[in-house]
Amino acid sequence: MAIFFYNSLTRKKEEFNPIKDNEVKMYTCGPTVYNYPHIGNLRTFIFEDLLHRWLEYRGFKVIQVMNLTDVDDKTIKNSQANKMSLKEYTDIYKKAFFEDIETLNIKKATYYPAATEYIEEMIEMIKVLLDKGYAYETNDGIYFKISSFPEYGKLAHLEKDELKAGASGRVSLDEYEKENVSDFALWKKWTPEDGEVKWESPFGPGRPGWHIECSVMSMKLLGETFDIHCGGIDNLFPHHENEIAQSEAYSGKKFVNYWLHSVHLIVNGEKMSKSKGNFFTLRDLLAKGYSARSIRYALLTTHYRKPLNFTFDLLIQANSSLKRIDDFIFALKNINKEGQFDEFLKSVLDNQIKKFEEAMDDDLNISEAIASIFELINIYYENFDNITKELANKVIEIFKRIDNVLGFIFSNEQKDELTEEEKTLIEERTKAKKEKNFAKADEIRNILLSKGIELRDTKEGVIWKRIK
Ligand code: AMP
Ligand code: ZN
Questions:
Q1: pLDDT tens string 257-269
Q2: How far apart are CA 410 and CA 332, in angstroms?
Q3: pTM, 2 dp
Q4: Which residues line ligand 1 (CB under 6 A)?
Q5: What are residue 62's DSSP bridge partners?
Q6: What is the number of the ligand 1 atom nearest to the C-alpha of 272?
Q7: What's the CA angle centered on 303, arms 93 and 401, to 5 degrees?
């Protein structure tokens, strides 16, 4: 088994080999907590969740860091507009972020450092960059001098003339375009617009630039060289390019071995973003009646390097795909046929799971992986009469295993089996029916229905299904 990832640094698919056998250290740029995440942000977090889960499926211990950007141009501006302190304001959106990832069944990262908890370390790193001659001071801050780092541009594959043009300029904003390649701020000296937001430093009161935040938090928690760094494609330049420059200038070592970037969620051909106003939050969609499970399915099942166009139809399709899976599991759970495994169906199961795994090893090719599951379902339906109880249980067991990766096959209710009380009620109803006490049987059926369990009588006996 070998896993391949497309590395933005080399622009090639490469075999993945972590620094330490059996352990992967990955850094994922987290939310800027100035608003609710939109589902574009969540697409990226779900892609990172899939990566984390796939590496675990393949036996690696995963150490994942996701930072919370709780001080930058946007958080300061918005906290002021809402007449709140930076902390009061960002705390609201930190909480909302954790609620959203839980709703979407995104696995927890190992660490969630907040930028404001690492200011001391950022100041230390800036001091080293000044000492080594990679940074300089101006009236308004400390800047990284891109011409002092000859490899600047290696991630974004910048052309020489783009660099030359940029070497003369300077930008203090956290976000800027490739056309404005230039020296960037490591420390921004306090100005009255910053209000109460400031920290003391040897370069005067002020605050860190956005890019240094991620260099510091990643290296502090994962070491000076680590395996994987992810983010949405908009993070590639300038954010990740600047992270490489600062970190490698500081440590003299390679910062990250594999850079993985997810492509945007788009709406009518444009990136979904807060500034364009063309966005939906998770809460918007839940309020419209879509389920978190369908949203997870819709955001997860297109390959992370393909653009995904958001439409409501996408959620409706997701819902019907999930229903096909639910019905299949329901049908399997109710098979009572005794006997040996059917050789053909057993080999279909093995082959389709192998295809699933091979697709995932190939740069997380989720659309092919899912297709192999639906193929399995189709073939099983065609040969339904040959499925024995033992084989049905085996399929359910394997689905549970792959759901550690997908996180949408079994909703919480489906994971549960019947409780003892529910089992007893079903047995009592069967007994009542045998005794022709139909009134009692109906009464028990209604009690179960009120608990969300629907019963159906078949030739083989009673079968049940959870309906809420
Ligand atoms: P932010 O909260 O803006 O710092 O973004 C958090 C993450 O979401 C980053 O990795 C961004 O690259 C990513 N992101 C932003 N917009 C989109 C989008 N429309 N589709 C996918 N990812 C996005
Ligand atoms: Zn970052």
A1: 999 999 999 998 8
A2: 14
A3: 0.89
A4: 29, 31-32, 40-41, 43-44, 69, 231-232, 234-235, 262, 264-265, 271-273
A5: 24
A6: 19
A7: 85
